[in-house]
Amino acid sequence: MQLMAVHLGQKIPERELAHWLALLPPERQKELFAKRAAGAQERSLCGEILARAMLAQVLRRPPDAISICRGAHGKPMLADGSGQFFNISHSGKYAVCAVAERPVGVDIEQPRAYQPRLAERVCSESEQSLLAHSEDPSQLFCRLWVLKESFVKCTGTGLGAPLHKISFSFAQDGTVRSNQAGFRFTCHAFTDAYWLAVCMASQDF
User: Fold this and answer.
1) What's the pTM value of the predicted model, to 2 decimals?
2) Buried-state track 78-95, b at ≥16 Cβ within 10 A, e below 16
3) In what order do the strands lie in the sheet with 85-91?
4) Architecture of domain 2-101
5) What is the DSSP string of the chain?
6) Where are the chain's structural domains?
7) Residue pair 104/87 in contact by the 8 Å Cβ criterion
8) pLDDT truncated to tens, each residue of the chain (205 aa)?
9) Are the C-beta atoms of residues 153 and 107 closer than 8 Å to each other?
10) For the chain, which has fewer Cβ within 10 Å, the N-terminal or C-terminal residue?
11) Cα separation, 98 vs 96, whole angstroms
12) 107-201: which CATH topology?
């Protein structure tokens, strides 16, 4: 598996933005132009260009020759079924992409104020117990959240999946434990303000 991140520290100049947009199919360009939230267009564009650059290296073809389609729940995938899988995530000042020979999901997030009611909806009973005894539930919830997101992005089921049935815990050395057989998980602090999780299928599903 390959994992790369780009830092989105400054606004992309209009000329450079136009150059990168030109690499994308017209319908994808329209989707990006429709994004109005501050920075959303640039984060999405950088994530996709990063994915195309990584896939171009693996597949030995130009970035604009990479054909990307989307699954039923919006998961991006290669249209030609070349045996490579990828996933993109972006948050704050970073965009990340994972490329692998098996289904893969990646998520990066910044911790936010802890919301107990949200945790009750998306966390298992054992996870809620961990949160109740945690000295920093905001950080712990973010770790659990990126793991859940990485899983549903790997499987392509989206956030409509019953997240409270997807449960995680951590060994003393930080190793991720899960009730989801057939998948491998990692979760790490990324810089001093983000959590990054990767889920990869350890067998076909």
Assistant:
1) 0.90
2) beeeeebbbbbbbbebbb
3) 2-7, 94-100, 85-91
4) Alpha-Beta Complex (3.90)
5) -EEEEEE--SPPPHHHHHHHHTTS-HHHHHHHHT--STTHHHHHHHHHHHHHHHHHHHHTS-GGG--EEE-TTS-EEETT--S-EEEEEEETTEEEEEEESS-EEEEEE------HHHHHHHS-HHHHHHHHT-S-HHHHHHHHHHHHHHHHHHHT--TTS-GGGS-EEE-TT--EEES-TTEEEEEEEETTTEEEEEEEESS--
6) 2-101, 107-201
7) yes
8) 999 999 887 676 778 777 778 878 888 888 777 776 657 777 888 888 899 999 999 999 998 889 898 887 888 899 987 889 999 999 988 999 999 999 999 999 999 999 999 999 999 999 999 999 999 999 999 999 999 999 999 999 987 889 999 999 999 999 999 999 999 999 999 987 999 999 999 865 4
9) yes
10) C
11) 7
12) Ribosomal Protein L22; Chain A (3.90.470)
Q: What's the chain's length in residues?
A: 205
Contact 56/66 with Cβ under 8 angstroms?
Answer: yes
